[in-house]
Design a protein that fits this description.
By secondary structure, the chain is α+β, with helices and mostly antiparallel strands. It is built from 6 helices and 12 strands. It is 25% helix and 38% strand.
């Protein structure tokens, strides 16, 4: 279209706008018709929209991971209130530096020659005191305070045991049951209305299945969570702890969920938050090679103690 014709169209549009200025809706309709018919094709006021893509939300991007993470988070949230720390305390000698004279048996003239009144010190015992000597983990299986742990955590019959619950409360614990062959122990605290963890099954576990370990890592970091997979099944190991005699444990679950010192006795969970094993050992110097006692091996013992406890 040439410039002359374009100018004519513009003036025509302006004239129509003036003539229909008082016409209200008529003005809008007429002007709109003229715009669509003449001006829009010429000036191309409305640019063709370029294709756009709606940015994916974080939920869409991480949808598979999000489902997995939510399952882990839910399992941990449900189980954590029922995971406890077990503190091992024992009366130990109080050692001090006491003065002594190594030449006291010699005649005075020789004592003067060899050191005179010089002070010498040696270690000596000044009574005993109750002291924390270790720690482990456990999990509550009965609302009235029955707790499952490892036998090696509460093996010392001369020690006393304190349970520290997730809400920071402390309870004296009494050992009800020890089974060295399964490295299983059950203790009891005087409490009611406690949160418990459901026992699952270790039958049918598959390599690569997600595992979650919760425990008192290093006896210092309560309710530490680590996540991994079932790395092996039906493992046999010879384990020792704290100078105790070696014990052969069989048919264990191997997992790469980090199990540290202090995690012993804590639960190994599946994604449903059910206990599938009891954390029992780790390989020193290895990278994330830990073991758990399958829950199906100890269920009968646990149920037997629970039954007797309720009588």
């Amino acid at each position: 279209m040439n410039n002359k014709k374009l100018i004519t169209i513009i003036f025509s549009v302006l004239l129509v706008g003036i003539l229909f200025g008082a016409a209200g809706s008529v003005k809008a309709n007429v002007f709109g018709d003229i715009y669509n018919k003449y001006l829009k094709p010429v000036f191309n006021f409305e640019k063709t929209a370029s294709p756009t893509t709606t940015p994916q939300t974080s939920q869409e991007i991480y949808s598979p991971t999000n489902d997995y993470e939510q399952a882990v988070i839910k399992a941990v949230e449900n189980a954590s209130p029922a995971v406890v720390s077990i503190i091992i305390s024992k009366y130990v000698p109080v050692i001090e530096q006491c003065p002594y004279n190594p030449f006291s048996d010699l005649p005075p003239e020789f004592r003067q020659l060899l050191g005179g009144d010089q002070q010498f010190y040696t270690e000596c015992q000044k009574g005993t005191q109750l002291q924390e000597v270790g720690g482990g983990s456990g999990f509550i299986v009965s609302s009235d305070g029955v707790i499952v742990t490892n036998k090696h955590v509460v093996a010392d019959k001369n020690a006393s045991y304190t349970v520290l619950t997730n809400d920071g409360k402390k309870y004296d614990a009494k050992v009800l049951f020890r089974n060295p062959n399964l490295d299983l122990a059950i203790v009891k605290i005087s409490a009611t209305g406690l949160k418990t963890i459901p026992l699952g099954t270790s039958t049918g576990l598959r390599l690569g299945q997600t595992t979650i370990a919760i425990g008192n890592a290093l006896g210092e970091f309560r309710n530490t969570v680590s996540v991994g997979v079932v790395s092996g099944l039906a493992r046999s190991i010879t384990a020792s702890s704290g100078g105790q005699s070696n014990e052969k444990l069989e048919n264990l679950i191997q997992t790469d969920a980090a199990i540290n010192a202090g995690n012993s006795g804590g639960p190994l969970l599946n994604l449903k938050g059910e206990v599938i094993g009891i954390d029992v050992a780790m390989v020193s110097g290895a990278q994330n090679i830990g073991f758990a006692v399958p829950i199906d091996q100890v269920k009968q013992s646990i149920e037997s103690v629970l039954t007797n406890n309720n009588k």
